[in-house]
Amino acid sequence: MSRILIDTTPLRECPPFRRLWMGQSLAAIGAQLTTMAVALEIHDLTKDPFMVGLVGVFALVPLMIMGLYGGSLIDNFDRRKVALVAATIQWSATLGLALAAWLGFENVWFLYAMVFVQYGANGVNAPARSAIIPRLVKRAQLPAANALNSTTWTVALMIGPLIGAVLVASFGYKVAYSVDALTFTAALYALFRLPSILPMRSDVSPGQPLRGWASVLDGFRFLTTRKNLRMTFFLDLAAMVFAFPIALFPAIADDILGGGKVTVGWLTSFTAMGMVVTLLLSGPLARVRRQGLVVTITVVGWGLSIAGFGVVLMVAGTTNPTSVIWWAFVASGLCLFAAGCFDAVSSVFRNVILQAATPDELRGRLQGIFTVTVAGGPNLGRTVSGGMAKGFAGVSPVPLGLAALVGGGLCVLAVGVLSKITPGFRQYDAENPEP
Fold it and tell me: What is the pTM of this model?
């Protein structure tokens, strides 16, 4: 069983990593709770899936700017301090959401503004934490450490939205946002307890650190010469931009499946359930050498699963049910569960490839680009799926289902094109990592 179940060696052997992992575990649940609450509040205020999807734009823009520039800060300053400052800003935005809810202030543009601040700060915090990990654990433990981090994120994705939906339905938005503010203090404490993580700057002369946008461009120049690293970014974008229909969930619950806010929470949680089950059985992943081939296969699996979800919705049709349509609810859950299984494996190996094939002095900048891709892709995907659903309204009786079906198909098509352009990625060997 020890060869099958998730490897917890980094937690046992590295106390700083253990504290970081535990703090982020609680904070991640609160973050997913707030993501769900914001989507539900915007849906309540506008009843427009496009406006819900527009959250992606207000998250993507600051994430791109700060994710890229933050990489320069991470590679030139104490990574612990950079992460701590960014996390404090995130926490302040969450407090703003909670305060507004308690005061009864309901405004869509205020919600967009708080999302803007949160994702801008996360654009620095997330890559800083990722760049810290290879300095805390041994290289041989990177697959295990990334599997543990992915498990944290997926457990949060599984229970956070459901908790958020239940809290909103039972107690309102003020309690939901307040719970997030409380859990985020655990992340601040964990970062505060970390040792100093000073960067290794072998790419610049002593006393003349390369900072600012020039440093960011240096990271991009490195990436342009590393085709395998580029593929990890492109494949993730193919999955998230074309086949990430989460912005449609509130409308799907109202128009097709029934069940209201609780159904929205379950739809989000099904994907995370698949990821959690896969990661808990991730022991064999440490023995996989053809990691590039596995990433390619699992991204195709994600696209097919989302396309299957779209087919279920189209068969169910738009009926505005007053109660849950159970057969469609279960079939949708199975499709999203399968998508989560594929995404879990892809996520672990994309992280491992990036960390193993990037020198330490460039990890902050590459992790910044990675964060823009991983977090920015889904937010752009929200807008794309919302826009497709709105565009298909005039050509299909079930535009929500058609948007998911077409998105999944585009994902598979994009993987095929990318694999044709970079066939060597499928030969990537974990024992001899070539960026």
Answer: 0.69
